[in-house]
Amino acid sequence: MRMRILAAALLIVAGCQSSPPAPAVSSAPEPTPKPGDTKFSMTWNGKERTYHVHAPANYDGSKSLPVVVVMHFYPGTGPEVAVTSAMSAKADKENFLVVYPDGFAAGMNALVCCGSEDDVGFIKSIVGKMVKDWKADPKKVYATGISNGADMSYRLAVETDLFAAIAPVSGAYSGQLTTDAAYMPKRPVSVIQFAGGLDRFYARINAGLETWQTRLKCMPAGQTTITGDVTRTVHKCGDGSEVVVYRVPKMGHSWPGAKSGGLSDPNAGIDATDLMWEFFKAH
């Protein structure tokens, strides 16, 4: 009897003890579209991926704006190419949106290197979010990048139907995928290319341009000297697109006109950011 009474007492005491608190659940909401700089993350193919959006100071989502996707060199990050390109300052002045994707392990899976992730799908998803959530104009989506990011702009032009024009800087249409003659855009995508004569990859860049122009049946439409020995050539292509190439003989593997950041060349004689935006506006 005494044992049963003791057991009952223990049950009563146990029942009065408070249960351990449930573990806290963190559910941070996705940042709301707003002016300035915002970092986003998303899960893509089972991995956390990040990208950065810049919106001009007067952004309120009330009207559709163009969007420029800017891709970094390898190894690099979105914020690093933001510094090199100075595209955010240009966006503030000209009223457009900018996206800086971060490559996985500091690289994009472009035409020659760097990685094996589905970066085409990742960037398509980002553009979809920009159109849906930020009210970006789907007819005014553009891509640029330097080095690894420039190669990626070519890949996006071929493998998606999102981009009206691209602006590769010190990068090329080259690699195993491009050996297939069918590996070309399915709709017109105009190109403005920047190439340095002292770039160790200049021969590859030039060969890629020749292949692109041959496959798209592009015909010469003029050449001019811009400043010093910098030249500008224009080709009009059979599908209605055009290819404009700025060649800077004394520049290496750089972003012409960039005043700071990695792979910058402030003394190139031209400003790639200004020139590509004028090109984008015309396409």
Describe the structure.
It contains 7 helices and 12 strands. It has 283 residues and is of the alpha/beta class. It has one domain: Alpha/Beta hydrolase fold, catalytic domain (Rossmann fold, 3-Layer(aba) Sandwich), CATH 3.40.50.
Strand content: 25-35%
Q: What count of helical segments does DSSP give?
A: 7
**What would you call the shape?**
globular
Task: Name the CATH homologous superfamily.
Answer: Alpha/Beta hydrolase fold, catalytic domain
Enumerate the spans where pLDDT stays under 50 for 5 or more consecutive residues. 1-28
Looking at this protein, list some descriptive labels.
ten-stranded mixed β-sheet, alpha/beta, 283 residues, disordered N terminus
Write the layout of secondary structure elements.
Elements: H1 2-16, E1 36-44, E2 47-55, E3 65-71, H2 78-85, H3 87-94, E4 97-101, H4 119-133, E5 136-146, H5 148-159, E6 165-169, E7 190-196, H6 202-215, E8 219-227, E9 230-236, E10 242-248, E11 255-256, E12 264-265, H7 272-281
Parallel strand pairs: 3-4, 3-5, 5-6, 6-7, 7-10, 11-12
Antiparallel strand pairs: 1-2, 2-4, 8-9, 9-10
Short summary:
This protein has 283 residues and is an alpha/beta fold. Helices cover 29% and strands 28% of the residues.
